[in-house]
Design brief:
Elements: H1 10-19, H2 24-27, E1 29-31, E2 34-36, H3 40-54, H4 59-70, H5 74-80, H6 86-96, H7 99-112, H8 117-127, H9 142-162, H10 164-167, H11 175-182, H12 188-203, H13 209-218
Antiparallel strand pairs: 1-2
Length: 224
């Protein structure tokens, strides 16, 4: 679980918000008339880990904050891609697990900071709608973009809390089932198949044990 509860200790959330762009100054480059910060998330994760270690935070707390910093661009990248697929939801939480919930709270606050307090209040009902819904008439330009980002964050949070079958499905088969079905021995291939099966379940392509066995049987053999 998270240090301090289901979404992390409030102090850690504030640290995540404080440090998520800590390496922007050292990565800043002007390109096409705009400042770009390529790689600031990876450098920032490393730097934030060092800061928390010097401050004597635990290894677990350090890992949570540095993970948030490393992945803080992912929700924005999903928003920029348009619709958020079931596969994208699954892969986000596959990679971050419960840390993703806390990271999304930091991300929400980050995006909300682009709006004035009055616009945040006006945007809130619309920011909780599914991505792709029409924008309110007053929301144009950067305001519309920000509301879309907030909708994507809200949708990811909704999938975690209301649709565990999409964000972290319980596997319909285990390793022994796979070995028996394919008549193979233990090895890395078992894990590969189970990871693929989890994704297929999250996408809704596999809904029953029978589907799962058929899916496993259809997978190509590993390359020699």
């Amino acid at each position: 679980g998270a240090p301090g509860g289901a979404v992390g200790h409030p102090a850690l959330l504030r640290l995540g918000g404080l440090l998520h762009d800590v390496s922007k100054p050292e990565t800043a480059k002007r390109q096409g008339g705009r400042l770009r910060f390529f790689g600031h998330e990876a450098k920032g994760a490393e730097k934030s880990a060092g800061i928390l270690q010097r401050l004597r935070f635990s290894r677990e707390e350090t890992d949570w904050v540095s993970t948030w910093v490393l992945h803080h661009l992912r929700p924005g990248n999903l928003a920029a891609a348009g619709a958020v697929s079931d596969k994208a939801v699954f892969r986000f939480f596959r990679d971050l697990g419960p840390k993703g919930v806390s990271q999304l709270l930091v991300c929400w606050a980050d995006h909300a900071s682009y709006l004035s307090p009055g616009d945040v209040e006006r945007a809130l009902p619309h920011a909780l709608e599914e991505p792709g819904r029409p924008m309110p008439r007053w929301a144009v330009g950067d305001a519309a973009k920000t509301i879309h980002h907030m909708r994507v964050v809200s949708w990811l949070l909704d999938r975690w809390f209301r649709a565990p079958e999409a964000s972290r499905p319980e596997l319909l088969l285990d390793g022994r089932d796979v070995m028996k079905a394919l008549k193979i021995k233990p090895g890395p291939r078992i894990g590969e198949l189970l990871r693929g099966l989890a994704e297929a379940q999250a996408e809704g392509a596999v809904r029953s044990r029978k589907d799962a066995l058929a899916w496993v049987a259809r997978q190509p053999p590993p390359k020699p």
